[in-house]
Design goal:
By secondary structure, this protein is an alpha/beta fold. 50% of the residues lie in helices and 16% in strands. It has 11 helices and 10 strands. An 8-stranded parallel β-sheet has the order 8-5-4-3-2-1-10-9, with helices on both faces. It has a two-stranded antiparallel sheet with strand order 6-7. Helix 2 (28-41) links the parallel strand 1 and strand 2 (45-49). Helix 5 runs parallel beside helix 6 (110-127). The protein is globular and about 60 Å long. The protein binds 1,3-dihydroxyacetonephosphate. 1,3-dihydroxyacetonephosphate binds next to strand 3, strand 10 and helix 10. 1,3-dihydroxyacetonephosphate is lined by residues 24, 82-83, 143, 181-182, 215-218, 237-241.
Length: 291
């Protein structure tokens, strides 16, 4: 009952000016930690896996754990496949039970991006209640195996954005607006808020049809987050921060307990740290109490 796709919870978020945290996980403990945090805050949730962890653990395992946790949780939860450049793997994850799929053909030409995105949209809509995320323009930095240099990154053109959405039938849309994957090199990254607002207005001015996604959540200042929500951001992706927290918490625990050989305690320390960080994100995004 609490298994949902991304679009349905994001439409509500965009209508009421809050956003949903989409947290990348690489293992089952992290998945449990983000669910615990969202349940504590009574918030809707998007769990994301990049392609690599999905292949390492196996998509069926990811889906089985997700479904077990989501069905027991009193909140709506989506499982999203993040930045997949391979149409076949997108389809396999849709078949396995992911409830949102991101086909990332943003490095292709505009027409090829449309072709691939539409093919995945048509497939996902034919097999179930699965929403699809497409990206236009490119987000700089590194996510999973995909690297985009800063000087290769291109922002989304608003007129093309409308055409892209119409021609692909995509459910949720990630326009490149200057956010980046990884740790920002400056305290005040250059984000094109106006472009985000314009795209939102053009797509959703007469009612929310295609909610917008903000990539590169790690390190975004809180006032930027609030402004991006105001401009239509309904899903914020957070990955690098959680990876750092997992590794730092694990390292600190081991360093402080050098004579202990209890893996469960190491996992618990990492889980607590992630739960805490996710809770903070949920507060910043305003989704607490919205489940
Ligand atoms: P960060 O790694 O910068 O948090 O970005 C995550 C992201 O956008 C995943 O799609």
């Amino acid at each position: 009952m609490s298994v949902v796709n991304a679009k349905e919870i994001m439409v509500e978020a965009a209508k009421h000016k809050y956003a949903i945290g989409a947290f990348n996980v690489t293992n089952i403990h992290q998945m449990e930690a983000v669910v615990e945090a969202a349940v504590e805050k009574n918030s809707p949730l998007i769990i994301q896996t990049s392609v690599k962890p999905s292949k390492v653990l196996g998509r069926q395992v990811m889906v089985a754990v997700y479904r077990t946790l989501a069905e027991a949780a009193p909140i709506p939860i989506c499982l999203h496949l993040d930045h997949c450049t391979d149409m076949d793997y997108c389809k396999k994850c849709a078949d396995a039970g992911y409830t949102n799929i991101m086909i990332d053909a943003s490095k292709q030409t505009y027409d090829e991006n449309i072709r691939q995105t539409k093919e995945v949209v048509d497939y996902c809509h034919s097999v179930g209640d699965i929403s699809v995320e497409g990206e236009l323009g490119t987000v700089s930095g590194v996510e999973d195996q995909i690297k985009v240099a800063e000087d290769e990154a291109a922002l989304a053109n608003p007129v093309q954005a409308v055409e892209f959405v119409e021609r692909t039938g995509v459910d949720i849309f990630a326009p490149a607006i200057g956010t980046a994957h990884g740790v920002y090199k400056t305290k005040n990254p250059k984000i094109d808020f106006e472009r985000m607002g314009k795209i939102h207005q053009m797509l959703n001015g007469n009612g929310i049809k295609v909610p917008l996604v903000v990539h590169g959540g790690t390190g975004l200042p809180e006032d930027y987050i609030k402004k991006l929500i105001e401009m239509g951001g309904a899903k914020f992706n957070v990955s690098t921060e959680l990876k750092h927290i997992l590794i730092d918490a694990t390292y600190t625990y081991i360093a402080d307990h050098r004579d202990e050989y209890d893996p469960g305690k190491i996992d618990a320390a990492a889980r607590d740290a992630i739960r805490h960080a996710v809770g903070h994100w949920i507060d910043m995004l305003g989704s607490a109490g919205k489940a």
